[in-house]
Amino acid sequence: MELVRRLMPLTLLILSCLAELTMAEAEGNSSCSVTLGGANMAETHKAMILQLNPSENCTWTIERPENKSIRIIFSYVQLDPDGSCESENIKVFDGTSSNGPLLGQVCSKNDYVPVFESSSSTLTFQIVTDSARIERTVFVFYYFFSPNTPIPNCGGYLDTMEGSFTSPNYPNSHPELAYCVWHIQVEKGYKIKLNFKEIFLEIDKQCKFDFLAIYDGPSTNSGLIGQVCGRVTPTFESSSNSLTVVLSTDYANSYRGFSASYTSIYAESINTTSLTCSSDRMRVIISKSYLEAFNSNGNNLQLKDPTCRPKLSNVVEFSIPLNGCGTIRKVEDQSITYTNIITFSASSPSEVITRQKHLQIIVKCEMEHNSTVGMIYVTEDDIIQNQNALGKYNTSMALFESDSFEKTILESPYYVDLNQTLFVQVSLHTSDPNLVVFLDTCRASPTSDLASPTYDLIKSGCSRDETCKVYPLFGHYGRFQFNAFKFLRSLSSVYLQCKVLICDSSDHQSRCNQGCVSRSKRDISSYKWKTDSIIGPIRLKRDRSASGNSGFQHETHTEETPNQPFNSLHLFSFMVLVLNVVIVATITVRHFVNQQAYYKYQKLQNY
Protein backbone atom coordinates (compact mmCIF):
# COMPACT_ATOMS: atom_id res chain seq x y z
CA MET A 1 0.00 0.00 0.00
CA GLU A 2 2.97 2.24 0.58
CA LEU A 3 3.72 2.04 -3.15
CA VAL A 4 0.13 3.04 -3.98
CA ARG A 5 0.35 6.05 -1.70
CA ARG A 6 3.57 7.14 -3.39
CA LEU A 7 2.04 6.81 -6.87
CA MET A 8 -1.10 8.82 -6.09
CA PRO A 9 0.51 12.35 -6.28
CA LEU A 10 2.12 11.43 -9.59
CA THR A 11 -1.22 10.14 -10.84
CA LEU A 12 -3.05 13.32 -9.87
CA LEU A 13 -0.38 15.45 -11.56
CA ILE A 14 -0.68 13.46 -14.80
CA LEU A 15 -4.49 13.67 -14.72
CA SER A 16 -4.36 17.45 -14.12
CA CYS A 17 -1.98 18.04 -17.05
CA LEU A 18 -4.00 15.85 -19.37
CA ALA A 19 -7.23 17.59 -18.40
CA GLU A 20 -5.69 21.02 -19.09
CA LEU A 21 -4.36 19.77 -22.43
CA THR A 22 -7.76 18.37 -23.39
CA MET A 23 -9.55 21.62 -22.44
CA ALA A 24 -7.05 23.70 -24.39
CA GLU A 25 -7.48 21.54 -27.47
CA ALA A 26 -11.27 21.70 -27.20
CA GLU A 27 -11.06 25.50 -26.90
CA GLY A 28 -8.70 25.74 -29.87
CA ASN A 29 -10.89 23.63 -32.16
CA SER A 30 -14.26 24.93 -31.02
CA SER A 31 -14.92 27.14 -34.04
CA CYS A 32 -14.02 24.41 -36.50
CA SER A 33 -17.52 23.00 -36.05
CA VAL A 34 -19.38 26.32 -36.13
CA THR A 35 -21.55 26.85 -39.24
CA LEU A 36 -24.70 28.81 -39.79
CA GLY A 37 -27.73 27.61 -41.69
CA GLY A 38 -26.71 23.98 -41.94
CA ALA A 39 -25.13 22.38 -44.98
CA ASN A 40 -27.16 20.24 -47.34
CA MET A 41 -27.21 19.38 -51.02
CA ALA A 42 -30.22 21.61 -51.73
CA GLU A 43 -28.42 24.84 -50.79
CA THR A 44 -27.20 27.21 -53.46
CA HIS A 45 -25.72 29.72 -51.00
CA LYS A 46 -24.57 29.87 -47.40
CA ALA A 47 -23.29 32.39 -44.86
CA MET A 48 -21.01 31.61 -41.92
CA ILE A 49 -19.70 33.70 -39.04
CA LEU A 50 -16.55 32.06 -37.70
CA GLN A 51 -15.38 32.98 -34.19
CA LEU A 52 -11.77 31.83 -34.24
CA ASN A 53 -9.57 30.85 -31.30
CA PRO A 54 -5.79 30.70 -31.00
CA SER A 55 -3.75 27.92 -32.61
CA GLU A 56 -6.44 26.60 -34.94
CA ASN A 57 -6.05 24.83 -38.26
CA CYS A 58 -9.37 24.10 -39.94
CA THR A 59 -10.38 23.19 -43.47
CA TRP A 60 -13.76 23.40 -45.20
CA THR A 61 -14.61 21.91 -48.58
CA ILE A 62 -17.63 23.10 -50.58
CA GLU A 63 -18.87 20.68 -53.20
CA ARG A 64 -21.94 20.05 -55.30
CA PRO A 65 -22.62 17.67 -58.20
CA GLU A 66 -23.90 20.45 -60.44
CA ASN A 67 -21.77 21.89 -63.25
CA LYS A 68 -21.47 25.32 -61.63
CA SER A 69 -18.68 27.47 -60.23
CA ILE A 70 -18.39 28.72 -56.66
CA ARG A 71 -17.84 32.34 -55.64
CA ILE A 72 -16.67 32.84 -52.05
CA ILE A 73 -16.49 36.28 -50.43
CA PHE A 74 -14.74 37.18 -47.17
CA SER A 75 -16.51 40.51 -46.71
CA TYR A 76 -15.34 40.99 -43.10
CA VAL A 77 -12.01 39.68 -41.82
CA GLN A 78 -10.72 40.42 -38.31
CA LEU A 79 -7.45 38.56 -37.72
CA ASP A 80 -4.39 39.20 -35.58
CA PRO A 81 -3.21 42.67 -36.68
CA ASP A 82 0.30 41.94 -35.39
CA GLY A 83 0.50 38.44 -36.82
CA SER A 84 2.42 37.58 -39.96
CA CYS A 85 0.79 36.19 -43.09
CA GLU A 86 2.83 33.01 -42.64
CA SER A 87 1.54 32.24 -39.13
CA GLU A 88 -2.10 33.41 -39.50
CA ASN A 89 -3.98 33.33 -42.79
CA ILE A 90 -6.86 32.06 -44.88
CA LYS A 91 -5.96 30.05 -47.97
CA VAL A 92 -8.41 29.22 -50.76
CA PHE A 93 -7.83 26.24 -53.06
CA ASP A 94 -9.46 25.25 -56.35
CA GLY A 95 -10.68 21.69 -55.78
CA THR A 96 -11.61 19.15 -53.12
CA SER A 97 -8.60 19.57 -50.83
CA SER A 98 -5.72 21.83 -49.87
CA ASN A 99 -3.61 19.95 -52.42
CA GLY A 100 -5.41 21.76 -55.26
CA PRO A 101 -4.20 24.95 -56.99
CA LEU A 102 -3.95 27.92 -54.61
CA LEU A 103 -6.42 30.64 -55.65
CA GLY A 104 -5.18 33.11 -53.09
CA GLN A 105 -4.28 33.94 -49.51
CA VAL A 106 -5.91 36.34 -47.05
CA CYS A 107 -4.34 37.82 -43.92
CA SER A 108 -4.63 40.96 -41.83
CA LYS A 109 -2.25 42.81 -44.17
CA ASN A 110 -4.56 42.57 -47.22
CA ASP A 111 -6.01 45.85 -48.50
CA TYR A 112 -9.01 44.54 -50.46
CA VAL A 113 -12.23 42.55 -50.07
CA PRO A 114 -11.14 38.97 -50.86
CA VAL A 115 -13.27 37.27 -53.54
CA PHE A 116 -12.37 33.95 -55.18
CA GLU A 117 -14.01 31.84 -57.88
CA SER A 118 -13.53 28.15 -58.54
CA SER A 119 -13.06 26.64 -61.99
CA SER A 120 -15.53 23.84 -61.19
CA SER A 121 -18.10 22.88 -58.53
CA THR A 122 -15.58 22.29 -55.72
CA LEU A 123 -13.62 24.72 -53.56
CA THR A 124 -11.63 24.40 -50.32
CA PHE A 125 -10.56 27.03 -47.81
CA GLN A 126 -8.27 26.66 -44.81
CA ILE A 127 -7.92 28.94 -41.77
CA VAL A 128 -4.78 28.92 -39.61
CA THR A 129 -4.39 31.14 -36.52
CA ASP A 130 -1.38 31.88 -34.34
CA SER A 131 -1.14 31.60 -30.55
CA ALA A 132 -2.14 35.19 -29.75
CA ARG A 133 -5.24 35.33 -27.52
CA ILE A 134 -7.30 38.02 -29.24
CA GLU A 135 -10.77 38.23 -30.75
CA ARG A 136 -10.97 36.92 -34.32
CA THR A 137 -14.03 37.01 -36.59
CA VAL A 138 -14.42 36.05 -40.24
CA PHE A 139 -17.64 36.44 -42.22
CA VAL A 140 -17.79 33.98 -45.10
CA PHE A 141 -20.42 33.96 -47.82
CA TYR A 142 -20.46 31.65 -50.82
CA TYR A 143 -22.86 30.71 -53.59
CA PHE A 144 -22.99 28.69 -56.80
CA PHE A 145 -23.34 30.48 -60.12
CA SER A 146 -23.18 29.84 -63.87
CA PRO A 147 -20.43 31.91 -65.58
CA ASN A 148 -22.25 31.56 -68.93
CA THR A 149 -25.40 33.37 -67.70
CA PRO A 150 -24.26 36.85 -66.62
CA ILE A 151 -26.59 39.46 -65.15
CA PRO A 152 -27.43 42.21 -67.70
CA ASN A 153 -25.75 45.61 -67.12
CA CYS A 154 -23.66 44.09 -64.34
CA GLY A 155 -20.26 45.75 -64.69
CA GLY A 156 -18.30 46.79 -67.76
CA TYR A 157 -15.52 49.01 -69.10
CA LEU A 158 -15.86 52.80 -69.09
CA ASP A 159 -13.17 54.62 -71.08
CA THR A 160 -14.66 58.05 -71.76
CA MET A 161 -13.40 61.13 -69.92
CA GLU A 162 -16.67 61.40 -68.02
CA GLY A 163 -19.74 59.23 -67.66
CA SER A 164 -22.29 57.61 -65.38
CA PHE A 165 -23.42 54.11 -64.44
CA THR A 166 -25.92 52.44 -62.11
CA SER A 167 -26.58 49.10 -60.47
CA PRO A 168 -28.62 46.59 -62.53
CA ASN A 169 -32.38 47.38 -62.54
CA TYR A 170 -31.86 50.81 -60.93
CA PRO A 171 -33.98 52.49 -59.56
CA ASN A 172 -35.77 49.19 -58.95
CA SER A 173 -34.40 46.57 -56.58
CA HIS A 174 -30.93 45.27 -57.38
CA PRO A 175 -30.61 41.53 -58.22
CA GLU A 176 -29.68 38.95 -55.61
CA LEU A 177 -26.32 37.13 -55.66
CA ALA A 178 -24.78 39.73 -57.95
CA TYR A 179 -21.10 40.48 -58.34
CA CYS A 180 -20.54 43.38 -60.74
CA VAL A 181 -17.21 45.02 -61.59
CA TRP A 182 -16.85 48.36 -63.42
CA HIS A 183 -13.40 49.32 -64.72
CA ILE A 184 -13.01 53.06 -65.31
CA GLN A 185 -10.01 54.33 -67.26
CA VAL A 186 -9.38 57.80 -68.60
CA GLU A 187 -6.45 59.24 -70.52
CA LYS A 188 -3.01 59.38 -68.97
CA GLY A 189 -2.28 62.50 -66.98
CA TYR A 190 -5.77 62.55 -65.46
CA LYS A 191 -7.27 61.42 -62.18
CA ILE A 192 -10.87 60.26 -61.67
CA LYS A 193 -13.39 61.88 -59.37
CA LEU A 194 -16.23 59.47 -58.56
CA ASN A 195 -19.47 60.82 -57.11
CA PHE A 196 -22.30 58.61 -55.86
CA LYS A 197 -25.62 60.38 -56.32
CA GLU A 198 -27.43 57.66 -54.36
CA ILE A 199 -26.56 54.46 -52.50
CA PHE A 200 -29.39 52.39 -51.04
CA LEU A 201 -28.04 49.03 -49.87
CA GLU A 202 -28.61 46.87 -46.81
CA ILE A 203 -27.40 48.66 -43.67
CA ASP A 204 -24.67 46.92 -41.68
CA LYS A 205 -21.88 48.32 -39.54
CA GLN A 206 -19.19 46.23 -41.24
CA CYS A 207 -20.94 46.14 -44.68
CA LYS A 208 -20.80 42.33 -44.66
CA PHE A 209 -23.93 41.60 -46.73
CA ASP A 210 -24.46 44.06 -49.62
CA PHE A 211 -21.66 46.51 -50.30
CA LEU A 212 -19.75 48.66 -52.79
CA ALA A 213 -15.96 48.39 -52.87
CA ILE A 214 -13.87 51.09 -54.58
CA TYR A 215 -10.28 50.35 -55.61
CA ASP A 216 -7.60 52.88 -56.51
CA GLY A 217 -6.38 51.24 -59.71
CA PRO A 218 -7.24 49.04 -62.69
CA SER A 219 -8.31 45.90 -60.77
CA THR A 220 -9.60 44.52 -57.48
CA ASN A 221 -5.99 43.86 -56.48
CA SER A 222 -5.42 47.61 -56.29
CA GLY A 223 -5.60 49.39 -52.96
CA LEU A 224 -9.07 49.59 -51.37
CA ILE A 225 -10.08 53.20 -50.78
CA GLY A 226 -13.62 52.51 -49.57
CA GLN A 227 -16.21 49.83 -48.69
CA VAL A 228 -19.66 51.36 -48.24
CA CYS A 229 -23.28 50.30 -47.79
CA GLY A 230 -26.53 51.63 -46.32
CA ARG A 231 -27.72 55.08 -47.37
CA VAL A 232 -24.74 57.36 -48.08
CA THR A 233 -23.51 59.62 -50.91
CA PRO A 234 -19.69 59.53 -50.74
CA THR A 235 -17.12 60.93 -53.19
CA PHE A 236 -13.82 59.24 -54.09
CA GLU A 237 -10.78 60.39 -56.04
CA SER A 238 -8.19 58.14 -57.67
CA SER A 239 -4.44 58.69 -57.59
CA SER A 240 -4.04 57.65 -61.24
CA ASN A 241 -6.09 57.38 -64.44
CA SER A 242 -7.93 54.18 -63.44
CA LEU A 243 -10.52 53.17 -60.85
CA THR A 244 -12.43 49.95 -60.14
CA VAL A 245 -15.90 49.72 -58.58
CA VAL A 246 -17.43 46.46 -57.27
CA LEU A 247 -21.05 45.77 -56.29
CA SER A 248 -21.61 42.59 -54.25
CA THR A 249 -25.05 41.47 -53.03
CA ASP A 250 -26.32 38.47 -51.08
CA TYR A 251 -29.64 36.60 -51.17
CA ALA A 252 -31.83 38.89 -49.02
CA ASN A 253 -33.00 42.50 -48.58
CA SER A 254 -32.71 43.97 -52.07
CA TYR A 255 -33.07 47.76 -52.35
CA ARG A 256 -32.58 50.42 -55.07
CA GLY A 257 -28.83 49.91 -55.44
CA PHE A 258 -26.79 52.93 -56.55
CA SER A 259 -26.33 55.68 -59.14
CA ALA A 260 -22.88 57.17 -59.80
CA SER A 261 -21.08 59.55 -62.15
CA TYR A 262 -17.42 60.37 -62.71
CA THR A 263 -15.33 63.17 -64.21
CA SER A 264 -11.66 63.55 -65.14
CA ILE A 265 -9.26 65.88 -63.36
CA TYR A 266 -5.99 66.85 -65.01
CA ALA A 267 -3.24 65.77 -62.62
CA GLU A 268 -0.03 67.00 -64.28
CA SER A 269 1.45 70.46 -63.83
CA ILE A 270 1.29 72.72 -66.87
CA ASN A 271 2.41 76.32 -67.34
CA THR A 272 0.88 77.22 -70.71
CA THR A 273 -0.08 74.50 -73.20
CA SER A 274 0.68 70.89 -74.05
CA LEU A 275 -0.05 68.64 -77.02
CA THR A 276 -0.39 64.85 -77.26
CA CYS A 277 -0.83 63.07 -80.58
CA SER A 278 -2.35 59.62 -80.92
CA SER A 279 -3.55 57.57 -83.86
CA ASP A 280 -7.13 58.87 -83.64
CA ARG A 281 -6.97 62.36 -82.10
CA MET A 282 -4.93 65.36 -80.97
CA ARG A 283 -5.27 66.42 -77.34
CA VAL A 284 -4.46 69.99 -76.36
CA ILE A 285 -4.30 71.06 -72.69
CA ILE A 286 -4.33 74.79 -71.89
CA SER A 287 -3.64 76.11 -68.40
CA LYS A 288 -6.40 78.32 -66.97
CA SER A 289 -3.82 80.52 -65.30
CA TYR A 290 -2.28 81.11 -68.73
CA LEU A 291 -5.66 82.16 -70.12
CA GLU A 292 -6.19 84.68 -67.32
CA ALA A 293 -3.82 87.03 -69.16
CA PHE A 294 -6.43 87.10 -71.94
CA ASN A 295 -9.34 87.61 -69.50
CA SER A 296 -10.65 84.19 -70.48
CA ASN A 297 -11.60 81.04 -68.63
CA GLY A 298 -11.49 78.99 -71.83
CA ASN A 299 -15.20 78.94 -72.49
CA ASN A 300 -14.82 81.27 -75.48
CA LEU A 301 -12.17 79.17 -77.25
CA GLN A 302 -13.02 77.25 -80.41
CA LEU A 303 -11.54 75.19 -83.26
CA LYS A 304 -11.88 75.82 -86.98
CA ASP A 305 -15.26 74.18 -86.62
CA PRO A 306 -16.91 76.47 -84.02
CA THR A 307 -19.30 73.72 -82.92
CA CYS A 308 -16.38 71.79 -81.38
CA ARG A 309 -16.08 73.15 -77.87
CA PRO A 310 -13.50 72.43 -75.15
CA LYS A 311 -14.02 70.50 -71.95
CA LEU A 312 -13.57 72.66 -68.86
CA SER A 313 -12.29 71.28 -65.57
CA ASN A 314 -9.22 72.45 -63.69
CA VAL A 315 -7.76 72.94 -67.22
CA VAL A 316 -9.13 73.58 -70.70
CA GLU A 317 -8.95 70.55 -72.94
CA PHE A 318 -9.55 70.08 -76.65
CA SER A 319 -9.85 66.51 -77.89
CA ILE A 320 -9.59 66.98 -81.65
CA PRO A 321 -10.49 64.05 -83.94
CA LEU A 322 -8.23 63.56 -86.95
CA ASN A 323 -11.22 63.46 -89.30
CA GLY A 324 -13.42 66.19 -87.81
CA CYS A 325 -13.72 69.64 -86.20
CA GLY A 326 -12.10 71.24 -89.22
CA THR A 327 -8.87 69.22 -89.04
CA ILE A 328 -6.94 69.40 -92.32
CA ARG A 329 -5.19 66.24 -93.53
CA LYS A 330 -2.22 66.55 -95.88
CA VAL A 331 -0.14 63.80 -97.54
CA GLU A 332 3.31 64.87 -98.69
CA ASP A 333 6.44 62.80 -99.38
CA GLN A 334 4.96 59.70 -97.74
CA SER A 335 4.18 61.74 -94.62
CA ILE A 336 0.73 62.54 -93.25
CA THR A 337 0.09 65.67 -91.20
CA TYR A 338 -3.05 66.83 -89.37
CA THR A 339 -3.55 70.50 -88.56
CA ASN A 340 -6.14 72.59 -86.69
CA ILE A 341 -6.33 76.05 -85.13
CA ILE A 342 -7.62 77.17 -81.72
CA THR A 343 -8.80 80.79 -81.46
CA PHE A 344 -11.14 82.93 -79.42
CA SER A 345 -14.75 82.96 -80.54
CA ALA A 346 -15.60 85.68 -83.04
CA SER A 347 -16.65 89.01 -81.58
CA SER A 348 -20.05 90.47 -82.18
CA PRO A 349 -20.52 91.70 -85.78
CA SER A 350 -21.31 95.19 -84.48
CA GLU A 351 -17.88 95.52 -82.86
CA VAL A 352 -15.15 97.14 -84.98
CA ILE A 353 -12.31 97.34 -82.44
CA THR A 354 -10.95 95.18 -79.61
CA ARG A 355 -8.52 95.75 -76.75
CA GLN A 356 -8.22 92.03 -76.05
CA LYS A 357 -4.99 90.25 -76.94
CA HIS A 358 -5.20 88.06 -79.99
CA LEU A 359 -4.49 84.36 -79.38
CA GLN A 360 -4.02 81.74 -82.06
CA ILE A 361 -2.86 78.20 -81.30
CA ILE A 362 -1.84 76.19 -84.37
CA VAL A 363 -1.91 72.45 -83.62
CA LYS A 364 -0.03 70.07 -85.90
CA CYS A 365 0.60 66.32 -85.71
CA GLU A 366 2.91 64.58 -88.15
CA MET A 367 2.77 60.80 -88.61
CA GLU A 368 6.16 59.40 -89.44
CA HIS A 369 7.74 55.92 -89.23
CA ASN A 370 6.80 54.17 -85.97
CA SER A 371 5.81 57.30 -84.08
CA THR A 372 3.75 60.45 -84.21
CA VAL A 373 5.52 63.79 -83.96
CA GLY A 374 3.46 66.69 -82.67
CA MET A 375 4.08 70.40 -82.86
CA ILE A 376 2.08 73.26 -81.43
CA TYR A 377 2.45 76.94 -82.34
CA VAL A 378 1.10 79.56 -79.97
CA THR A 379 0.91 83.10 -81.34
CA GLU A 380 0.24 86.07 -79.10
CA ASP A 381 0.55 89.29 -81.09
CA ASP A 382 3.29 87.83 -83.33
CA ILE A 383 4.96 85.94 -80.48
CA ILE A 384 5.35 82.25 -81.40
CA GLN A 385 6.04 79.38 -79.02
CA ASN A 386 6.83 75.85 -80.20
CA GLN A 387 6.26 72.55 -78.39
CA ASN A 388 6.84 68.97 -79.59
CA ALA A 389 5.16 65.69 -78.65
CA LEU A 390 5.62 62.02 -79.55
CA GLY A 391 3.14 59.18 -79.93
CA LYS A 392 2.55 55.86 -81.68
CA TYR A 393 -0.12 54.19 -83.70
CA ASN A 394 -2.61 52.40 -81.49
CA THR A 395 -3.10 48.82 -82.70
CA SER A 396 -4.39 45.65 -81.06
CA MET A 397 -4.64 41.99 -81.96
CA ALA A 398 -7.41 39.56 -80.97
CA LEU A 399 -8.73 36.07 -81.67
CA PHE A 400 -12.23 35.53 -83.05
CA GLU A 401 -14.59 32.56 -83.07
CA SER A 402 -15.17 32.41 -86.84
CA ASP A 403 -14.24 33.96 -90.17
CA SER A 404 -17.07 36.48 -89.73
CA PHE A 405 -14.85 38.24 -87.15
CA GLU A 406 -17.88 39.31 -85.14
CA LYS A 407 -17.37 37.69 -81.70
CA THR A 408 -14.07 38.29 -79.93
CA ILE A 409 -12.57 35.56 -77.75
CA LEU A 410 -11.84 37.10 -74.35
CA GLU A 411 -10.35 34.05 -72.60
CA SER A 412 -6.70 34.29 -71.59
CA PRO A 413 -5.04 31.87 -71.89
CA TYR A 414 -7.15 30.49 -74.73
CA TYR A 415 -7.25 26.68 -74.76
CA VAL A 416 -7.54 25.08 -78.20
CA ASP A 417 -7.38 21.66 -79.81
CA LEU A 418 -4.42 20.67 -81.94
CA ASN A 419 -5.10 21.59 -85.59
CA GLN A 420 -8.08 23.80 -84.62
CA THR A 421 -8.59 26.75 -86.99
CA LEU A 422 -7.81 30.09 -85.34
CA PHE A 423 -8.98 33.46 -86.69
CA VAL A 424 -6.79 36.49 -85.94
CA GLN A 425 -7.46 40.20 -86.51
CA VAL A 426 -5.13 43.18 -86.06
CA SER A 427 -7.06 46.45 -85.60
CA LEU A 428 -5.87 50.03 -86.10
CA HIS A 429 -7.68 52.39 -83.73
CA THR A 430 -7.91 55.68 -85.57
CA SER A 431 -10.59 58.08 -86.70
CA ASP A 432 -8.84 58.64 -90.06
CA PRO A 433 -10.83 56.60 -92.62
CA ASN A 434 -8.14 56.96 -95.31
CA LEU A 435 -5.65 54.53 -93.76
CA VAL A 436 -5.28 50.80 -94.45
CA VAL A 437 -3.53 48.00 -92.49
CA PHE A 438 -1.21 45.48 -94.16
CA LEU A 439 0.15 42.34 -92.43
CA ASP A 440 3.87 42.34 -93.18
CA THR A 441 5.19 39.65 -90.82
CA CYS A 442 3.49 37.35 -88.26
CA ARG A 443 5.52 34.85 -86.27
CA ALA A 444 4.92 32.49 -83.35
CA SER A 445 7.05 31.64 -80.32
CA PRO A 446 6.61 29.45 -77.21
CA THR A 447 7.63 32.38 -74.94
CA SER A 448 6.12 35.81 -74.37
CA ASP A 449 9.37 37.60 -75.25
CA LEU A 450 9.25 36.03 -78.74
CA ALA A 451 12.65 34.43 -78.20
CA SER A 452 13.98 31.50 -80.23
CA PRO A 453 12.64 29.19 -81.49
CA THR A 454 10.22 31.11 -83.70
CA TYR A 455 8.00 30.05 -86.58
CA ASP A 456 6.92 32.37 -89.40
CA LEU A 457 3.27 32.29 -90.39
CA ILE A 458 3.52 35.38 -92.63
CA LYS A 459 6.70 37.00 -93.97
CA SER A 460 6.94 39.97 -96.33
CA GLY A 461 3.18 39.73 -96.78
CA CYS A 462 3.46 36.09 -97.96
CA SER A 463 2.00 33.05 -96.22
CA ARG A 464 4.77 30.73 -94.96
CA ASP A 465 2.54 28.07 -93.42
CA GLU A 466 0.41 25.69 -95.48
CA THR A 467 -2.62 26.24 -93.23
CA CYS A 468 -2.25 30.04 -93.12
CA LYS A 469 -4.64 32.14 -95.17
CA VAL A 470 -4.20 35.92 -95.40
CA TYR A 471 -7.39 37.91 -96.05
CA PRO A 472 -7.49 40.82 -98.56
CA LEU A 473 -6.98 44.41 -97.40
CA PHE A 474 -9.92 45.60 -95.32
CA GLY A 475 -9.51 49.16 -94.09
CA HIS A 476 -8.32 49.38 -90.49
CA TYR A 477 -8.23 45.57 -90.09
CA GLY A 478 -5.60 42.99 -91.05
CA ARG A 479 -6.92 39.42 -90.91
CA PHE A 480 -5.58 35.88 -91.28
CA GLN A 481 -6.29 32.33 -90.13
CA PHE A 482 -4.17 29.26 -89.39
CA ASN A 483 -4.41 25.86 -87.69
CA ALA A 484 -3.20 25.47 -84.10
CA PHE A 485 0.13 23.74 -83.49
CA LYS A 486 2.66 23.29 -80.69
CA PHE A 487 6.43 23.64 -80.54
CA LEU A 488 8.42 20.44 -80.09
CA ARG A 489 10.36 20.10 -76.81
CA SER A 490 8.63 23.21 -75.45
CA LEU A 491 5.63 24.14 -73.38
CA SER A 492 2.19 23.99 -74.98
CA SER A 493 1.88 27.80 -75.04
CA VAL A 494 2.10 29.79 -78.28
CA TYR A 495 2.47 33.59 -78.57
CA LEU A 496 1.86 35.55 -81.78
CA GLN A 497 3.50 38.79 -82.93
CA CYS A 498 2.50 40.66 -86.06
CA LYS A 499 4.37 43.59 -87.62
CA VAL A 500 1.96 45.67 -89.69
CA LEU A 501 2.36 48.48 -92.19
CA ILE A 502 -0.06 51.43 -92.30
CA CYS A 503 -0.55 53.10 -95.66
CA ASP A 504 -2.59 55.84 -97.28
CA SER A 505 -5.44 54.01 -98.98
CA SER A 506 -5.48 56.48 -101.88
CA ASP A 507 -1.89 55.58 -102.82
CA HIS A 508 -2.30 52.62 -105.17
CA GLN A 509 1.49 52.25 -105.46
CA SER A 510 2.05 51.88 -101.71
CA ARG A 511 3.61 48.80 -100.15
CA CYS A 512 0.23 47.80 -98.72
CA ASN A 513 -1.23 47.49 -102.22
CA GLN A 514 1.71 45.46 -103.51
CA GLY A 515 0.70 42.42 -101.45
CA CYS A 516 3.05 39.43 -101.26
CA VAL A 517 6.49 40.24 -102.68
CA SER A 518 9.93 38.80 -102.10
CA ARG A 519 12.30 40.79 -99.91
CA SER A 520 14.62 41.53 -102.85
CA LYS A 521 11.82 43.28 -104.70
CA ARG A 522 10.43 45.30 -101.80
CA ASP A 523 10.43 49.07 -102.13
CA ILE A 524 11.37 50.25 -98.65
CA SER A 525 10.56 53.88 -99.48
CA SER A 526 7.00 53.12 -100.44
CA TYR A 527 5.72 53.18 -96.86
CA LYS A 528 6.53 55.16 -93.75
CA TRP A 529 4.36 53.91 -90.91
CA LYS A 530 5.03 50.65 -89.10
CA THR A 531 3.96 49.10 -85.77
CA ASP A 532 3.45 45.69 -84.14
CA SER A 533 0.98 43.78 -81.94
CA ILE A 534 1.35 40.73 -79.68
CA ILE A 535 -1.23 38.23 -78.40
CA GLY A 536 -1.04 35.10 -76.24
CA PRO A 537 -0.78 32.64 -74.74
CA ILE A 538 -2.69 30.09 -76.80
CA ARG A 539 -2.54 26.67 -75.12
CA LEU A 540 -3.55 23.14 -75.98
CA LYS A 541 -6.42 21.67 -74.00
CA ARG A 542 -5.65 19.20 -71.23
CA ASP A 543 -7.92 16.56 -69.70
CA ARG A 544 -9.23 17.56 -66.33
CA SER A 545 -10.98 15.22 -63.92
CA ALA A 546 -12.43 15.65 -60.47
CA SER A 547 -13.94 13.26 -57.95
CA GLY A 548 -15.34 13.36 -54.42
CA ASN A 549 -18.48 13.22 -52.33
CA SER A 550 -21.25 15.74 -52.83
CA GLY A 551 -22.38 18.14 -50.17
CA PHE A 552 -20.53 20.47 -47.80
CA GLN A 553 -17.59 18.60 -46.29
CA HIS A 554 -15.88 19.72 -43.11
CA GLU A 555 -12.48 18.53 -41.92
CA THR A 556 -10.64 19.33 -38.69
CA HIS A 557 -6.97 18.65 -38.02
CA THR A 558 -4.22 19.88 -35.74
CA GLU A 559 -1.27 19.14 -38.01
CA GLU A 560 -0.83 18.78 -41.74
CA THR A 561 0.09 15.08 -41.56
CA PRO A 562 -1.70 12.21 -43.31
CA ASN A 563 -2.04 10.02 -40.18
CA GLN A 564 -2.72 11.07 -36.62
CA PRO A 565 -2.83 7.83 -34.54
CA PHE A 566 -2.97 9.56 -31.14
CA ASN A 567 -4.62 12.70 -29.87
CA SER A 568 -4.87 13.93 -26.28
CA LEU A 569 -8.00 11.87 -25.57
CA HIS A 570 -6.25 8.71 -26.69
CA LEU A 571 -3.25 9.62 -24.56
CA PHE A 572 -5.48 10.25 -21.53
CA SER A 573 -7.19 6.87 -21.91
CA PHE A 574 -3.85 5.14 -22.33
CA MET A 575 -2.41 6.73 -19.18
CA VAL A 576 -5.48 5.77 -17.14
CA LEU A 577 -5.18 2.19 -18.37
CA VAL A 578 -1.47 2.07 -17.45
CA LEU A 579 -2.22 3.52 -14.03
CA ASN A 580 -4.90 0.87 -13.39
CA VAL A 581 -2.49 -1.87 -14.41
CA VAL A 582 0.14 -0.50 -12.02
CA ILE A 583 -2.34 -0.32 -9.13
CA VAL A 584 -3.67 -3.85 -9.72
CA ALA A 585 -0.18 -5.24 -10.04
CA THR A 586 0.91 -3.52 -6.82
CA ILE A 587 -2.06 -4.86 -4.87
CA THR A 588 -1.50 -8.38 -6.24
CA VAL A 589 2.18 -8.35 -5.31
CA ARG A 590 1.39 -7.01 -1.84
CA HIS A 591 -1.21 -9.70 -1.27
CA PHE A 592 1.17 -12.42 -2.48
CA VAL A 593 3.93 -11.24 -0.14
CA ASN A 594 1.55 -11.20 2.85
CA GLN A 595 0.31 -14.67 2.08
CA GLN A 596 3.86 -15.90 1.71
CA ALA A 597 4.74 -14.45 5.14
CA TYR A 598 1.73 -16.09 6.76
CA TYR A 599 2.30 -19.51 5.24
CA LYS A 600 6.06 -19.68 5.93
CA TYR A 601 7.63 -23.04 6.62
CA GLN A 602 7.31 -24.33 10.22
CA LYS A 603 9.17 -27.16 11.87
CA LEU A 604 6.96 -30.22 12.48
CA GLN A 605 6.53 -31.36 16.02
CA ASN A 606 7.47 -34.87 16.93
CA TYR A 607 4.71 -36.95 18.34
Automatic annotation (TrEMBL):
Function: Localized to zymogen granules, where it functions in trypsinogen activation. May indirectly regulate cell motility, cell-cell and cell/extracellular matrix interactions.
Membrane topology according to the record: Single-pass type I membrane protein
SMART domains: CUB, ZP
Gene3D superfamilies recorded: Spermadhesin, CUB domain, Zona pellucida, ZP-C domain, Zona pellucida, ZP-N domain
Entry annotated with the keyword Transmembrane helix: yes
Transmembrane regions listed in the UniProt entry: 571-593
GO cellular component terms, semicolon-separated: zymogen granule membrane
KW Disulfide bond (keyword) present: yes
Signal peptide (from-to): 1-24
Keywords for this protein: Cytoplasmic vesicle, Disulfide bond, Glycoprotein, Membrane, Repeat, Signal, Transmembrane, Transmembrane helix
Location relative to the cell: Zymogen granule membrane
Domain CUB: 32-146, 154-265
Name of the protein this chain belongs to: CUB and zona pellucida-like domain-containing protein 1
Alphabetical GO biological process terms: trypsinogen activation
A Pfam family assignment: Zona_pellucida
InterPro entries per record: CUB_dom, Sperma_CUB_dom_sf, ZP-C, ZP-C_dom, ZP-N, ZP_chr, ZP_dom
Coiled coil: none
Residue span(s) of domain ZP: 276-519
PROSITE patterns associated with the record: CUB, PROKAR_LIPOPROTEIN, ZP_2
Region (Disordered): 543-562
UniProt main location, coarse: membrane
